[in-house]
Write a structure and sequence with these properties.
This protein is of the alpha+beta class. About 30% of the residues lie in helices and about 40% in strands. The longest helix is centred in the C-terminal third of the chain and has 22 residues, at about 145-165.
């Protein structure tokens, strides 16, 4: 038994299951299930040195997580989650967020939702201008068809896009 304790003490991390109590930025408060010990600054990201380039899976408050507890300083880090609140990816030029409200993509200061919405508005203006055209040989554009296309793109497609992107 003594040799087993000696062997286990060589590992710097203890694995446990905890419940998420509160989340704040890249840290959360968790309570271990078995011994009810609380960790008030449990890191959501196992590697905290890098503040700009990171992938973080944020657990839901009240969900269970697997934590690693460092024996040396009694600090905890989340290793896996049972329920996801949101996923965030960041690097020097891009960021991506996915949560229950949808997706948000940004790259070099451009937001995908804004770019697509501007395209749809521009397309709608183009349809308005084409609908004004009268051909001199007696055949005119099918204005109702043009307006239906405009409505499909500007309204229906925009609503669907806005449901997906935040």
């Amino acid at each position: 038994m003594e040799s087993l304790k000696l062997l286990l003490n060589r590992f710097p991390v203890v694995i446990d299951t905890a419940k998420v109590i509160k989340i704040e930025n890249d840290y959360c408060q968790v309570a271990a299930i078995d011994d009810k010990k609380e960790f008030f600054d449990c890191s959501i990201n196992a590697v905290v040195e890098n503040k700009t380039d990171k992938l973080i899976i944020v657990p839901k408050v009240g969900s269970l997580v697997t934590i690693g507890i460092y024996k040396k300083n009694n600090k905890a880090v989340i290793l896996s989650v049972s329920e996801v609140e949101k996923i965030e990816f960041r690097n020097d030029k891009s960021d991506f967020t996915f949560d229950s409200s949808g997706f948000q993509f940004n790259r070099d200061g451009e937001n995908l939702k804004e770019v697509l919405n501007q395209f749809q508005e521009g397309f709608g203006k183009l349809c308005d201008e084409v609908a004004k055209v009268v051909v001199s040989i007696g055949v005119t554009p099918d204005v109702p068809a043009i307006m239906q296309i405009k409505n499909d793109i500007v309204n229906a497609n925009k609503q669907a896009l806005n449901k997906i992107l935040t």
